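Fig. S4 source data, part A: sequence.
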Amino acid sequence: MTDYIIAIDQGTTSTRAIVFDHSGSIVSTGQLEHDQIFPKAGWVEHDPKQIWDNTREVIGQALSKANITRHNVKAVGITNQRETAVVWDKTTGEPVYNAIVWQDTRTQEIVDRLGGDEGPERFKSIVGLPLATYFSGTKIVWILENVEGAREKAEAGDLLFGTTDSWVLWNLTGGVDGGVHMTDVTNASRTLFMDLETLQWRDDILAEFGVPKSMMPEIRSSSEVYGTVHTSSLLREVPVAGILGDQQAATFGQAAFDAGESKNTYGTGNFLIFNTGTEIVHSKNGLLTTLGYKLGDDVPHYALEGSIAVTGSLIQWLRDNLGIISSAPEVETLAKTVDDNGGAYFVPAFSGLFAPYWRSDARGALVGLTRYVNKGHIARAALEATAFQTKEVLDAVNADSGVDLTELKVDGGMIANNLLMQFQADILGVPVIRPVVAETTALGAAYAAGLAVGYWANLDELRANWQEDSRWEPEMDDAERQRLYRNWKKAVTKTLDWVDADTQ
């Protein structure tokens, strides 16, 4: 009987279950999108119950398409949108509010209040993160302060918090019937509450935020058996044995296990992770210090991360809000109708600017417009925005690490766009490399789970699975590269200081 690993990839726009074989190849996939809920400007929510319902359904889809049962599955791995916060009642299993998504900016007043005189860097030396709306800690505070009865229930020990890995794990292992409440170090490192050195929750920081410790999941490694799937599931009694936040999972799936290795994921946002090995490197250039992975009892591996809020979601915006394309792949066709951006630059600061700026007061801007500019130029400017933002982050990585990156491994949905990948190589001046298995996020979670149960023996076995699919070499001359980038930096300045106290 052939054995497999199944990964649950709970992402920002959809939930997938992917069955992998021993070579790391995809056997089957189940996928369902969930609703994007925008109650107010800057607010982004998901329905946790819809996410869990979809998780169960995509597991069934993946098993059915592969024509296998639970008996063929050695372990389950989970990967997830990292900073999206769910708070639920442990006695009923009901969320007290919608999941507040990582892109949501409603907590800026809480961020300012907590920063006080010390500002956004107040806890950074301990947790590796600036105070920002991006992270889940301030989202918990908002729920406790704004949802009727939530504070009282939390103080009584009746509420649980988790990023979506914890929500899926708790439900998968039984929910109110014995579900395990855990998370891994990579997700815990995105809350603002975890000490990078001890890998434990900081009681003093939780107290400053006013978050009861009883809400918090137990922090575990990224690769171990957390529990088994509940008997009510198609995967009953299969061990759940791997958890990695989505960007760390993609790095793991790219086999970037060692210091100096990196990857860039092109998804709803873009996330570049640079492995710093067992050393904690504190960024001086606007990057985040985060956990890369921890395998069982082994020492943790750390990373620098450049997080970009809006890349793929800008293409969705062109489709859904402006209607200038009817499907995401059409953006490449439209962009190819012109030879360049026509002088237009699109800075998609829809949720403020993340790395390396961390400016919550920024808002999106389309600049350099003349009557010459048409929708082809706008499509091209939208694609180029992704590449320009990546260059800003990569420059920061080079400055922090002291080592210039010589090539960039890429993954995520947007890497199917050849025009973007060529422009990325051009603006960086280094080769861009796409692997054969582009679903590296789910693959990383599968790898973590498979290692825990002995399906794969070691990291060398995983390295051997990695294969190059495509490579783009830079073709742009240096003077043009510098001109375009100079104009991009100028465009960014036009987005700053937009939000005032009375801005809606």
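Fig. S4 source data, part B ends here. The radius of gyration is 22 Å.
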